[in-house]
């Protein structure tokens, strides 16, 4: 088995106009999340971030705790919303939607 037995954590971005991109070989992550500015995150040294599509982010590395911590940091930028289901969520995460108000 190779030394780089990596841990992966996938996140998906749901929402119109929400996008992600990486720069500097996975060292910086830029997120467009409907704010007036682009959110910029510096990726920790033991972790790499990749964007396969504009709405799928892959956090990878050797240290499980650091990978999961960075994935949680990315998710906290726009947690999934319970009424419309928009936001950043883990690939395997299920968001239960709430009903909302009923109009007369």
Task: Give a brief outline of the structure.
This protein is mainly β.
The assigned structural class equals: mainly beta
Task: Note the total helix count.
Answer: 1
Largest sheet descriptor: 4 strands, antiparallel
**What share of the residues lie within helices?**
10-25%
The end-to-end span amounts to 63 Å
Low-confidence blocks of residues: none
Radius of gyration in whole Å, from Cα? 15 Å
Strand content is 35-45%
Q: Name the helix and strand elements from N-terminus to C-terminus, one letter apiece.
A: EEEEEEHE
- Major beta sheet, strand line-up: 5-6-1-7
Count of strand segments: 7
Which overall shape is indicated by the principal axes computed on the Cα atoms? globular
Question: How would you describe this protein?
Answer:
There is one protein chain. By secondary structure, this protein is mainly beta. The protein has 1 helix and 7 strands; from the N terminus they run E-E-E-E-E-E-H-E. It has one helix at residues 64-76, and strands spanning 7-14, 19-23, 28-32, 39-42, 47-53, 56-61, 87-90. The strands form 2 sheets. Strands 5-6-1-7 form a 4-stranded antiparallel beta sheet, with helices on one face. The longest helix is centred in the last third of the chain and has 13 residues, at 64-76. The radius of gyration is 15 Å and the shape is globular.
Characteristic key phrases:
single chain; 4-stranded antiparallel sheet; 3-stranded antiparallel sheet; 1 helix; 7 strands; Ribosomal_uL6-like; ribonucleoprotein; structural constituent of ribosome; rRNA binding
């Amino acid at each position: 088995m190779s030394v780089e037995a990596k841990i992966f954590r996938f996140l998906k971005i749901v929402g119109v106009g929400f996008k992600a991109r990486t720069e500097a070989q996975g060292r910086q992550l830029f997120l467009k999340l409907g704010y007036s500015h682009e959110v910029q995150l510096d990726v920790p040294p033991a972790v790499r971030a990749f964007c396969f599509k504009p709405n799928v982010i892959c956090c990878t590395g050797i240290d499980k705790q650091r990978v999961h911590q960075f994935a949680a940091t990315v998710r906290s930028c726009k947690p999934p919303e319970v009424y419309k289901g928009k936001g950043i969520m883990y690939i395997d995460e299920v968001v239960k939607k709430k009903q909302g108000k009923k109009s007369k």
